[in-house]
UniProtKB/TrEMBL annotation:
InterPro entries: MeTrfase_RsmB-F_NOP2_cat (IPR049560), MeTrfase_RsmB-F_NOP2_dom (IPR001678), NusB-like_sf (IPR035926), NusB_RsmB_TIM44 (IPR006027), RCMT (IPR023267), rRNA_ssu_MeTfrase_B (IPR004573), RsmB-like_ferredoxin (IPR054728), SAM-dependent_MTases_sf (IPR029063). It catalyses: cytidine(967) in 16S rRNA + S-adenosyl-L-methionine = 5-methylcytidine(967) in 16S rRNA + S-adenosyl-L-homocysteine + H(+). The active site is at C389. It comes from Acidiferrobacter thiooxydans. Its EC number is 2.1.1.176. Keywords: Cytoplasm, Methyltransferase, RNA-binding, rRNA processing, S-adenosyl-L-methionine, Transferase. Specifically methylates the cytosine at position 967 (m5C967) of 16S rRNA. This is 16S rRNA (cytosine(967)-C(5))-methyltransferase. PANTHER family: NOL1_NOP2_SUN FAMILY PROTEIN _ ANTITERMINATION NUSB DOMAIN-CONTAINING PROTEIN (PTHR22807:SF61), NOP2 YEAST -RELATED NOL1/NOP2/FMU SUN DOMAIN-CONTAINING (PTHR22807). Gene3D superfamilies: Helix hairpin bin (1.10.287.730), NusB-like (1.10.940.10), Sun protein, domain 3 (3.30.70.1170), Vaccinia Virus protein VP39 (3.40.50.150). The keyword rRNA processing applies. GO terms for cellular component: cytoplasm.
């Protein structure tokens, strides 16, 4: 029999498990309520990062709040699969914070080594902090039933949407399980060092002097990987622009484009500005233009360039390239195309909840339109780097092969790296390879 309904009037009075103490410090309850509200935002369609940012702005940053929120969303498909059969009706939208408490309690029990009675009692008691004490009985019942069900028949699914598992199996028959496992891991904190201002080894020494363990990345020669997380603004040299947070795979874009002095360079779909900043730092004499269609994201790009000291050397435009062409001509173009983001799930676990297979055809259409449109802005003899943070061939090698077939003056420059895979066109990194995100690159040259 399902253990709860979506409305308080349908919840049966249920005695709490014996021995469970509900009294908790008000501070702890408030922290769990904060996590529940973040999770509820995601469950109702919001993105995780803005929800975290809003909570930090209101209350300050707290490790427990973020561990519970991010961890619960990371394992949400598994946790929802365990609880869905136990609910008589889905929770209504206004009560998704109660759903969040259930998922959070299971996350604590399954992945934080919290004793089950403690995980249950903390989740149940946190309903008071949400001003929903009427939900305690339902929370207790669902949590106890879910924990009992897990003990009898442990979860055997993949903690990802079925459509994605199917696509991944078809695309990567030998490595799909490793990709799923990597997606469930915490991503490392990787920094990009401005090596024109400080050598990577010298920056590693600065980290060591600050008591921060780190290592050089084996593929990206500007990348440093920290042994554990840290508060980024307090890292040596961050405020001065010596380092930026950027995954090692993303750090390969600028050297692949390799602009020469005084060349006109376009970073299309540039916000929030990590690759723009890398281009401006690595080729300070190039004439870089950064374009994105989202004004809010362009504001973040300006903040990034200001911190790096590059804002005055980059022309920024808020412009929808998919709808309105440019008249300018560029020797180098970086097209980091809108995509499914299926290569960065470990950094953005809410992708598991929000991405749909129906998103792929319109994304693929936008990618093709951008490729065709921007090709006309590329000078003869110029170079375009097409990039995505996807692991799906239809957005990557298939997209490039189709483009080459319809574009007579385009040819592919072969790529090679010590990790990853050469594809029929371009190069694919899968999540976890050399500790990197999933990323795809193809370098295209326009015949003179």
């Amino acid at each position: 029999m399902p253990a709860c309904s979506r409305h308080r009037s349908f919840c049966r009075p249920i005695r709490l498990a014996s021995g469970i103490a509900l009294a908790k410090p008000r501070h702890a309850l408030t922290l769990r309520a904060r996590s529940a509200r973040i999770i509820a935002r995601v469950l109702t369609g919001g993105a995780l990062d803005p929800a975290l940012d809003e909570d930090r702005a209101r209350h300050g940053r707290h490790g427990l709040v973020e561990e519970l929120a991010i961890g619960t969303i990371r394992y949400a498909p598994r946790l929802l699969a365990r609880t869905a059969p136990l609910l008589r009706h889905p929770f209504r939208k206004a009560d998704q914070d109660l759903q969040a408490l259930i998922l959070m309690g299971l996350y604590q029990a399954f992945f934080m080594d919290t004793p089950e009675p403690v995980a249950v009692s903390e989740a149940v008691a946190a309903a008071d902090a949400l001003a929903k004490p009427w939900g305690k009985g339902a929370l207790n019942a669902v949590l106890r039933a879910a924990l009992a069900a897990e003990a009898v028949a442990p979860y055997t699914g993949y903690n990802h949407p079925d459509w994605f598992v199917d696509r991944l199996q078809a695309a990567w028959p030998e490595t799909w399980r490793a990709v799923l496992a990597a997606n469930d891991e915490r991503a490392p904190l990787t920094l990009r060092v401005d090596t024109r201002r400080i050598a990577r080894d010298d920056y590693l020494e600065r980290l060591a002097q600050a008591g921060i363990a780190a290592r050089a990345h084996p593929v990206a020669d500007t990348a440093v990987v920290l042994a554990q997380g840290a508060l980024v603004p307090g890292l040596p040299g961050f405020r001065e622009g010596l380092v930026s947070v950027q995954d090692a795979a993303a750090q390969l874009a600028a050297p692949l484009l390799a602009p020469a002095p005084r060349e006109a360079v376009l970073d299309a779909c540039a916000a929030p500005g990590g690759k723009t900043g890398h281009l401006a730092q690595s080729a300070p004499e190039a004439r870089v233009t950064a374009i994105d269609s989202d004004p809010a994201r362009m504001a973040r790009l300006a903040e990034t360039l200001t911190r790096l000291g590059c804002l005055g050397r980059v022309r920024t435009l808020t412009h929808d390239l998919a709808e309105y062409p440019l008249d300018d001509c560029f020797a180098r173009i970086l097209l980091d195309a809108p995509c499914s983001a299926t290569g960065v799930i470990r950094r953005h676990p809410d992708i598991k909840l929000h991405r749909r297979v129906s998103d792929l055809p319109p994304l693929r259409a936008i990618q093709a339109r951008l490729l065709d449109r921007l090709w006309h802005n590329l000078a003869p003899g110029g170079t375009m780097v097409y990039a995505t943070c996807s692991v799906l061939p239809e957005e990557n090698e298939d997209q490039v092969i189709d483009f080459l077939a319809r574009t007579p003056d385009a040819r592919e420059d072969a790529l090679h790296f010590p990790v990853g895979q050469a594809r029929r066109a371009g190069w694919q990194f899968l999540p976890g390879e050399a500790g990197m995100d999933g990323f795809y690159y193809a370098r295209l040259a326009r015949r003179a």
